[in-house]
Amino acid sequence: MRQLIAGNWKMHGLTAEAESIVGPLRHAGVLERDLLVCPPATQIAATVRMLAGSGVGVGGQDCHAATHGAHTGDISAPMLRDAGAQYVILGHSERRQDHGETDPQIRAKTQAAQAAGLRPIVCVGETDAERQVDRAFAVVGAQLLGSLPDSFTGGAFDGIVAYEPIWAIGTGRTATEADVAAMHLFIRSELTRRFGAAGQATLILYGGSVRPTNAAALLAVPHVGGALVGGASLKAEDFLAIARAK
Ligand code: PGA
User: What is the gyration radius of the CA atoms in the chain, in angstroms?
Assistant: First the structure.
C-alpha cells in the first residue's frame, strides 16, 4: 500500500505563502508516496485549483458534524467537499485542547465526513504526563474506541488514523522508533479487532516533529502508513524531502 504524506498547515497560509508551498508540489514528478495538503479553509478552493491534475490531494482541518444550520463560523463536511477537498483532519490534539472537542463529537464529525464523501484522518495521541505513568496505550485505545464510528451506512470505517503523541507536536522531539512501532502495532490490532480486513488495510500515519532528517527512519517502521507533518509542510522543499526520504 502506498504511504501518504499529509501536510497540516494549521493556521498558516496567506495567498502568497500558499502559492509558494503548492507551486513546487505540482511539478514534483513521480513519487513513491501520495501527497496531501491541508491548508486553512480560506485557501482550500484556490489550492484545489492550483493542484488540479497533479494527483496531490487537498483536505480540510476540521468540519462540523451537521450538514448546515445556525453554527456561526463553522464549516460543514459537504462545504469542504464542495470546495474540492477529498480529506479532512479530525480530532487533532490542538482542537481537542483549544476547542474542548470530545471523542463523541469527533465520532459525529467522522460520520459526517464519510457521509459527505470525505476521507477522515482521525488523530489520537497521549500527553507526556500520560506516557510517564504508562497510560499511553490506555489513552489511545479509549480515543480510538470513542472517536471512530463502528460503521457508516452499512460499510466499515474507511478513514485514516494519525498517531500524534502530543509531546512530539511542534517540539522537535519525536517518539523513538521502538515507541512508534509498539503504538502502531497496538493501533493495528485494535482496528483489526473492530473492523476485520478493513482494519488491516487502514493507513496509520505518524505525526509529531517529522522532518527530512528523521522521516526515512520513521517511515520504515512497521505499520507506519505515512506521516502527518505540521511545521515541515510549510516549506515545499522540506515537505518533498520527507516524501522522498529513503
Ligand atoms: P509538527 O506538527 O510536525 O509541527 O510537529 C504535526 C501535527 O500537529 O500534525
Answer: 17
Identify the pLDDT of residue 150: 83
Residue in the structure block whose three cell numbers are 479532512: 88
CB of 209 shorter than 6 A to ligand 1: yes
Q: Is 196 left (phi over 0), alpha (psi -120 to 50) or beta?
A: left
164 classed as catalytic: yes
All three cell numbers of 36, joined, read: 496531501
Strand partners, 122: 90, 161
| CB distance 228 to ligand 1 below 6 Å | yes
- 92, 94, 101, 130: the active-site residue: 92
pLDDT in tens, 119-169: 999 999 999 999 999 999 999 999 999 999 987 655 677 899 999 999 999
Task: Name the residue among 187, 142, 127 with its Cα closest to residue 163.
Answer: 187
Quote the percentage of the chain above a pLDDT of 90: 91
What are the sequence ranges of the domains in the chain?
4-243
In whole angstroms, give the CA distance from residue 5 to residue 27. 16
Topology classification of domain 4-243: TIM Barrel (3.20.20)
Query: By percentage, how much of the chain surpasses pLDDT 70?
Result: 98
Closest CA to ligand 1's atom 9: 230
In DSSP terms, which residues pair with 205 in a beta bridge?
A: 162, 226
DSSP result, 139-168? HHHHHHHHHS-SEETTEEP--EEEE--GGG
